Amino acid sequence: MSLKLEKVNYVYSTGTAYERQALKDIDLEIADGEFVALIGHTGCGKSTLVQHLNGLLKATSGAIYENGKNIYEDGYDLRSLRSRVGLVFQYPEYQLFEETVIKDVMFGPKNRGLNEEQAREKALLALKQVGVDEKYFEQAPFELSGGQKRRVAIAGILAMEPECLVLDEPTAGLDPRGRDEILSLVSRLHKERGISIVLVSHSMEDVANYASRIVVMDHGKIMYDDTPAAVFEHWEELEKVGLSAPQVTYVMQLLKKDGWDTDTGATTIREALKSILAEYERAGKP
Amino acid sequence: MIKARNLSYDYIRQDEEGNTESVYRAVNDVSLDVETGDFVAILGHNGSGKSTFAKQINALLLPTEGTLFIDGKNTKDVEKLWEIRQSAGMVFQNPDNQIIGTVVDEDVAFGPENMGVPREEILRRVEKSLKSVGMWEYRSHSPNRLSGGQKQRVAIAGVVAMQPKCIILDEPTAMLDPNGRREVIEAVLELNASKHVTIILITHYMEEVIRADKVFVMDQGKIAMQGTPREIFTQVEKLRELRLDVPQVTLLAHELKEAGIPLPNGILTVEELRWHLNRLRKRRMFQARGEVE
Ligand SMILES: Nc1ncnc2c1ncn2[C@@H]1O[C@H](COP(=O)(O)OP(=O)(O)OP(=O)(O)O)[C@@H](O)[C@H]1O
Ligand SMILES: Nc1ncnc2c1ncn2[C@@H]1O[C@H](COP(=O)(O)OP(=O)(O)OP(=O)(O)O)[C@@H](O)[C@H]1O
Ligand SMILES: [Mg+2]
Ligand SMILES: [Mg+2]
Asked: What is the C-alpha separation between B235 and B55, in angstroms, rounded?
């Protein structure tokens, strides 16, 4: 599915002392099957923005279109949008409320009308995909470690088989292997099933490794919207708004300064490796 | 500051009649020492027992087996509970479990108030700690109207304001942007350097531990590795087996080395890699021209 935001503004607690405009004139289009990363300083509006994508928050002004249909128009089925755009919340605790892990993951599919058995099947598959061991299925979610809770929360959304998967800092709290497992899973779902992905993350390394497009936000506005290489070329500006570039990008930039002919657009280990090795080889030629 | 001897912790699940249904050993026979003023990092896979261990330091959980001394006090000694909590302040993994005030500055004042710190001193500490995490301008906001990362900063300020001898931070930067992560680590290092506060940092970000004095790696409740950051991060394969990783620049250096560039093991920073690469490239150029053997 494609999602399009047009001049979206969002103001929290209008008319109170806490009034705060969290989104300012956001224009953004997420095409069907795209993998977009959303980055920005804490409090810049990422979570606010992604909660608009499944209709959880309603824009104060502006419009949102799903495959060309205005989601705020009378007769539009918001309930269906909510199940087709799966949103994994920033804090898994907000999402886990059933007595046991398995029931929690079955909740979504059951809500979509599947019977007990079908729902269980979906849940088992999803739990397996995110790497939650069977021994935890009958445990209460609060008895899990932070990273285990995170996995269960992601499984709960996967079990609904959404067309668009929105993940709000899904790897926060995961161990490095877990982080790679979850992101490879997301990447596989994207490639094999053509699911659109919106990934909110504070890890510059992760977004560079997985996304083909990065949207950078600053104080409620979109600052850059481009490929990883192009976005991280602006590492100095990014630092000014609380962000950074992947470590390898810094290596490439510094080597360039030192006279190496390195590819400063390299944002992943593989790209950096290739470029440094080539230059090192050249140094060996008389 | 911290002395653990054969420390274990079991989570026990009981059925309605109070019979034991299952026992899960989350911390298993851990013995370790942390000196006053140390900056110690704890790494380990999800569920390896890091938070359980941290909660024992602050006497929120008591040892099932073994003993744990905090600043010379046995955590099993109920009379010392209050003192232990005062000397070991904890920043929890989820800030929602920590923030209790309805206004940011009240929340930060809560700890010192409970300790009987005089009013004027409280105000001073609240200002200083909120500024150190960049949240001073949010002092009169309601915590539940803050973004995830902002809440986490407030939780950190709350513990800093109590000025404990030891601060345990359980994944304090998990929700922060790169700048926020750097600021928190700087703030923590500052406390460590200027006030000699003992720091226990639990994290899944490998780059954050390179300045620690000592790193412990947990695996299934046990201490699987310990050493300086360089000693730990030299062991790329072993860390991977434990579901961990090394900083990205360390990995890049490791792969360059595997590909034939004679770099030393355990490079930890961008500057270090830059220096070695420049040195090696120059040598290679000289060699190619036959100037040096
Ligand atoms: N309920 C609320 N009432 C008033 N302001 C709010 C509310 N929730 C969030 N805000 C403010 O809106 C802004 C955007 O918040 P949001 O949660 O979208 O940020 P974010 O980019 O997701 O940050 P983080 O990376 O820390 O999760 C922040 O400045 C925050 O303080
Ligand atoms: N209240 C509880 N009841 C039963 N088991 C628990 C409870 N809390 C934690 N556990 C189990 O104890 C083990 C250790 O959990 P702990 O929270 O200490 O891990 P951790 O290393 O902090 O992990 P993470 O990196 O995911 O935060 C896990 O397997 C977890 O499932
Ligand atoms: Mg957020
Ligand atoms: Mg934990």
From this structure: 29
